[in-house]
Design brief:
Blueprint (H helix, E strand, L loop, with lengths): L6 H40 L22 H18 L4 H6 L6 H4 L1
């Protein structure tokens, strides 16, 4: 096995890949937490609401977009897709190997 000492490759590994690996490890943990809360607590509450019902967070006056039940559902559907990808066989082994710090050190 040969060593790759090319400075551009070394720099790319250390400044792009390793930090991205850490971000993906964190993202996976966040997605897992959000999806657990969604299925256990939030989705059951939303059953009684229509898709176009608006989350009344009082932020419209700040210029923040309004979020509907459909927006929440669609967002969590996409997170579920991401979670499925992360949960695939060997995926997290590949994504976490370049990470320098453990999840507990990052968060």
């Amino acid at each position: 096995m040969a060593y790759i000492s090319n400075q551009q490759v070394v720099s790319f590994s250390n400044t792009q890949i390793r930090p991205m690996a850490e971000r993906l490890v964190v993202l996976r943990a966040l997605v897992d937490d959000i999806m657990q809360e969604w299925y256990a607590q939030i989705a059951p509450i939303l059953i009684e609401f229509a898709d176009d019902d608006i989350v009344n967070d009082g932020r419209a006056s700040e210029g923040v977009s309004r979020i509907t039940k459909a927006d929440l559902t669609n967002f969590c559907t996409q997170l579920s897709t991401i979670k499925t990808q992360f949960d695939g066989a060997g995926v997290m082994d590949v994504l976490s190997k370049p990470a320098v710090r453990s999840l507990s050190d990052i968060m």
